[in-house]
Amino acid sequence: MSFITGVGLTPFGKHEGSSSLDLMSKAAQAALDDAGLKRAEIDGVLCGYSTVSPHIMLATVFAEHFGIRPSYAHAVQVGGATGLAMTMLAHHLVEAGVAKHVLVVAGENRLTGQSRDASIQALAQVGHPDYEVPLGPTIPAYYGLVANRYMHEYGVTEEDLAEFAVLMRSHACTHPGAQFHDPIEVADVMASKPVAMPLKLLDCCPVSDGGAAFVISRARTGETGVRIRGCAQAHTHQHVTAAPALSELGAEISIARAKEATGLAISDVRYAAIYDSFTITLAMLLEDLGLAGRGEAAARVRAGHFGRDGAMPLNTHGGLLSYGHCGVGGAMAHLVEAHLQMTGRAANRQVHDASIALLHGDGGVLSSHVSMFLERVR
Amino acid sequence: MSKRIADWTKGEGAITYQACTSCGHVQYFHRAFCAACGASDPPEARASGKGRVYATSLVCRAATPETRAHVPYNILLVDCAEGFRMMAHGDNGLAIGDSVVASFKPFAGTLVPYFAKEK
After folding, report:
1. Chain A residues 109-128 with CB within 8 Å of chain B
2. How many structural domains does chain B have?
3. For the domain that residue B81 is a member of, what is the CATH number?
């Protein structure tokens, strides 16, 4: 059994003068405080990577900086799926008795620490160095290709995709830590600058500074426990050129494995925290996971299904699209928000019942997937 | 190891692929083995350059001065006649399902495959 005993999240946006280590430390301290634990009680550290400050041993760099001497520590790299992959590993480490309290942490000054061009270039390197990168694609182009094909196969329109940007912005407007607080409409998304068609600026997540952390423990430290009920991964390819057909992507495989591991069904889920690097990512994942029928996710957004008061509240902090994306910490914000919802601490964003949450992360170009079920226990 | 033949990734105007003699698997990313069965040295062959558009994305925001000079450029995934999928450039108006044929164009200091509608 494993529990998420504490969570920490900085605001996303500009943190002028903060390094990646500063942002990691800030989030880590917040998570420790939330769990009611002292530094010395942390015996495991898992951390993400920083594109601004790459290091071959970031976990020990962080541990030394933060002032802890863990018995288990290393970094994990699975692109956007890193946060949930670390959580899955922490779950297994704790269950296996390797560690008692594992600190999972990531932070990056991606917005102020390097130029936007540098971020775009760094991320484009997930493409094949010989067969893709020389063609000048960007991450939005990789996802633009997927979007073009998905729209073709399932009759999804650009206006449909825009709905997800509008929804995430409306959620971000209610969170003081979000990068964007100006409401937008479908027309704004449609009129925003073309980036990699069919994706426009407002279909894309921003580049942000920020940090996030959690503590995964063998036993709960507070009254309300958030238990990791079970999780699973799937990795079908790295490069979009080598991706399988849309009907055979990893999200469907990992969710099937996670359902089998937990005995849970999608109908049990009360809150959804789903990776949303682009509007197409969110639309596809919702449909791959079974949170909406094929080609039907946008209609569900329009009907209020994924709103705070809807049947399946989704990314109530605003997601990557509007809370922001600081690299590994970006998708970890989804878990922090799920935890706040499950423990009744989401303030004006609180949903009616977040007793069981489904989390899903995606790395690369729908390459690596992690699905995870969390359950509230009293 | 079979003799290397010309390929666009080496700056030459050709598209090549590998076809495994043991299991028949066709692969575009060249390796010293077949990714399906592991057999060594799958022979290389030159592709016809004919295929069908699988997906397109018109890049309007590039990240380097060299690539920015070409904006907008259309990135394609093409299902080639020989049974492999590749990424390439192509005419701006291309749509999914179009039959296309390859030529080669300079792009950001290198030579890249460029597809246009088959006439």
Report:
1. 117, 120-121, 124, 128
2. 1
3. 2.40.50
How far is the alpha carbon of B103 from chain A, nearest alpha carbon, in Å?
14
Residues of A whose CB is below 8 A from B108: 134, 136
Exposed/middle/buried for residue A39 (C-beta within 10 Å: 0-12, 13-18, 19+): middle
A chain contacts of residue B110, beta-carbon cutoff 8 Å: 134
In which domain, by residue range, is B78 found? 50-117
Residue in the block written with tokens 């709960």: A220
Contact B61 A134 (CB under 8 A): no
Q: What angle do CA A84, A89, A90 make, to 5 degrees?
A: 95
Q: pLDDT, tens digit, for every residue of A121-161?
A: 888 788 999 999 999 999 999 999 999 999 999 999 999 99
Answer yes or no: is the ipTM higher than 0.95. yes
Chain B residues with beta carbon closer than 8 angstroms to that of A134: 9, 107-108, 110, 112
Mean pLDDT of A247-259: 97
Domain count, chain A: 1
Check if A240 contacts B (Cβ < 8 Å): yes
The segments of chain B whose pLDDT lies below 70 read: 1-3
Answer whether B36 touches A (CB < 8 Å): no
- 3-state percent breakdown (helix, strand, coil) of chain A, nearest 5: 40, 20, 40
Among left, alpha and beta (phi > 0; psi -120 to 50; other), residue A318 is left
